[in-house]
Amino acid sequence: MRVVICGGGVIGAAIAYFLTRRGVRPIVVERTGIACAASGKSGGFLALDWCDGTPLQALARRSFELHAGLPGEIGGDWGYRRLTTYSGFAAATGPRRRGGNDAVPWLAESVTVDRRLGSPATTAQVHPARFTAALMQAAEAGGAELRLGEVTGLLRREGRVAGVELAGGTIDAEAVVVAMGPWSIIAARWLRLPAVHGLKGHSLVFDVTLPAEALFLDYQDGDGASYSPEIYPRDDGTTYVCAISSDSPLPTDPATVVPDEGAIERLAARCARLSPALGQAGVLAQQACHRPVTADGVPLIGPVPGLAGAYVATGHSVWGMLNAPATGEAMAELIVDGAARSVDLSPFDPGRLPPASRR
To answer: Considering only Cβ atoms within 10 Å of each terminal Cβ, which end of the chain, N or C, has fewer?
Structure first.
């Protein structure tokens, strides 16, 4: 079987890797580069049970298990480690209100740590860009191919997919997977795909080593506005902080995504108030990315209605890094065997939502 995967983010790389484990040698077509968008700029946070009670429960639990086993299967180091995770709150002015931050002493006195959200048994992390690259390298070692190019349409023959059209040629294929994150909306011109939107988030990477403790904070600014900073120290001596979302338009090229005006400055100022360690650290990266979201907040994973051999895997929102391995495993089963066995994909059926308007 010849399979083309459109998109070189973590979802596309995971599908490629698990297909090679089934003996398929897919071609991954990526316009800009591996992990060039959210897969290279996200937090890389993993949780076993935070999706319990939602359609994502089985997918997340299976994926958390796969994450734990992948370091023993794939060469390379992508910073996988277990974490303790806390929640807390703070305000731009005023002292802490109750409790304290004894559990996380590198926070400012104005921050209150109110409870533990996860233990090393239930929360973990990866470095997203390194993880995505490792998956793709493992896929290439198994026979996959990476081609830089822009997919502009589909080839069809007798009511089914026959390949993809590129800006400079074509590739024949029996199956095509759309895994382009928020840019999957482009494929709605060729397929009956539901709409996928990009929610923009901003982040900073600091040059500072902190303990393996992730934090989810509620922060009230001086003007009364509320934000939810997330702080992820990494094993490479850096610390990632994200906050400040917006509905800024999605550009055509992922390489042209830049932070909103003033967003990075506001985020840096809040980081300095939250932690003296962050306030004194150098900044290694100032960045923004668009997370793919669907109308009901549930990913699209499965066959595309109306065209045999067409598949989609996108819309994972903030849980893309967590759920990539189980998505890749289930998609490989679906494409090769005709049905996914490891996870029930019916909650993610693309046909549950109306198709986007074609423009």
So the answer is: C
